[in-house]
Amino acid sequence: MVFYYRQGEVPKKRHTVFMKQDKLLREEVFGLNGFSGRFSLLYHLNPPTRIAKLGEWKNNVLEEWKDAGYRHHKLSTSKLRKSNDPFLDRIALIFNNDVILSYVKIDEGETKLFYRNADFDEVYYVHEGEITFKSVFGEMELSQGDYLVIPRGTTYKFDFKKSSELFIIEGKQIEIPKSYRNDYGQLIEGSFYYNRDIKLPVLKTFDEKGEYTLVIKTIQGYQSLTLDSNPFDVIGWDGYLYPFALSVYDLEPITGKLHQPPTVYTTFTANNFVICTFVPRLFDYHPQSIPISYYHDNVDADEIIFYSSGQFMSRRGISKGDITIHRGGHVHGPQPGAVESSLNKRSTYNDEVAIMVETQKRVKLTSYAKEVDDPSYPLSWYT
Ligand SMILES: [Fe+2]
Predict the structure, then answer these.
(1) Which of residues 248, 278, 304 is at a domain's end?
(2) How confident is the model at residue 223 (pLDDT cuts 50, 70, 90)?
(3) How far is CA 158 from CA 27, 246, 266, in A?
(4) Cβ partners under 8 Å of residue 209, min gap 6
(5) Please, which residues have CB less than 5 A from ligand 1, an ion?
(6) Does residue 76 lie in a domain region?
(7) What is the DSSP letter of 271?
């Protein structure tokens, strides 16, 4: 996050003695890019370094679907199995060196494990469900339509209040677009959302001893370890680096006289990809405008869209929960009849929500993607 935020108690000066009931609190500097990036200062009841037991290392190299060819794809998440864990058992479908896109369907209940992604920031998009997100920074309630953005290195867990489905994006430097921020970090007029729309964690402190299993994820796999106190033992923190949430229903789509490019829906930028959100909106107001998109080929990009709800004007045969991959170098756009039927429409369907991840480098598909791929999709513009 790019705004200064403070929760709980912090000492008057950083790096000074800070006592709580005769106990010396333990300060942690949690930061990115060495000591020159964003950071927060956290004050723990216990040293955050006390590993009582090292658990197992588990390799997790993604298995590529090697003979996928080079074509458009449609993946049906409705055909995916349930996951046992949102972190260890998420189903990776699409990836390259910059980004991993995964899906999770999970039953109600609280996760026993604590999680920390060492290599990638994470965005969890709540497709369905009600979830309490718990973290070293505090807790947040999430529901359908929420993006949860977690900086890499954050310790967290989940309590699923009902069975939930999550579309997960992992990458580096997942941030609020710089073009939306003034020199002071305030979101400027004309941005897709405003500071007020950002939901922040509320600190909750646990002073508990016991066995707490933390799983640290890297690009290569998972390291499990046991701590002897609850890692959510922070009594205060401040800084610029912490998880936050944003509901797609609070976004403010920019509409125009003629068709606007996806760029206006940019929600987060990241290292070599962007995340955009298509939300309900009025269509263009030129009397002869064609409201839906033109045929296009962004040669230098692969375009992945997760369809969360609604009926998409330009697409037939797309169901809620489907993911399309449109390859650079192939043309795509409205399917037959879609332009004609859009001409007199004044708005999208009022529950239309889709998440787009546009990557600057080619993505690969995993063997899981192969299982839920519709091989006839590239021909869906033919009839
Ligand atoms: Fe497109």
Answers:
(1) 248
(2) very high
(3) 25, 17, 27
(4) 228, 229, 230
(5) 303
(6) no
(7) T
**Are residue 317 and residue 238 in the same domain, yes or no?**
no
Beta bridge partners of 303: 326, 358
**275 inside domain:** yes
Question: What is the CA(97)–ligand 1 centre distance, in A?
Answer: 22
Paired tokens of 205: 């402190």
From the list 186, 142, 180, 149, the residue with the least C-alpha distance to 164 is 142
Residue with tokens 């000492």: 11
Q: Assign 314 a pLDDT band (cuts: 50, 70, 90).
A: low
- Report how far ligand 1's centroid is from the alpha carbon of 332 (Å): 6
Ligand 1 centroid vs 121 CA: distance in angstroms?
25
Domain endpoint, select from 209, 233, 248: 248
> Whole-angstrom Cα distance, residue 70 to residue 51?
46
Tokens 């899981």 appear where?
368
CA distances from 304 to 44, 78, 381 (A): 41, 17, 18
217 and 279 share a domain?
A: no
What pLDDT is attached to residue 169?
A: 98
pLDDT digits (tens, 9 = 90+) for 7-62: 999 999 999 999 998 999 999 999 999 999 999 999 999 999 999 999 999 999 99
The alpha carbon of 149 and the centre of ligand 1 are apart by a number of angstroms equal to 24
Q: Kindly give the distance from the C-alpha atom of residue 331 to the centroid of ligand 1, in angstroms, as a whole number.
A: 9
Tokens 């004050």 found at? 43
Report yes or no on 74 lying in a domain: no
Per-residue model confidence as pLDDT tens digits over 342-356? 888 888 766 889 999
Mean pLDDT of the chain: 95
Mark whether 233 and 366 lie in a shared domain: no
Cα–ligand 1 centroid distance for 317 (angstroms): 16
Residue matched to tokens 């290569």: 220
333 Cα–ligand 1 center, Å: 6
Do 242 and 262 belong together in one domain? Answer: no
CATH number for 155? 2.60.120.10
- Whether the full predicted model's pTM is greater than 0.90, yes or no, is yes
The residue segments making up the domain with residue 295 are: 253-379
Q: Is residue 318 scored above 80 in pLDDT?
A: yes
272 CA to middle of ligand 1, Å? 17
**Does any domain span residue 266?**
yes
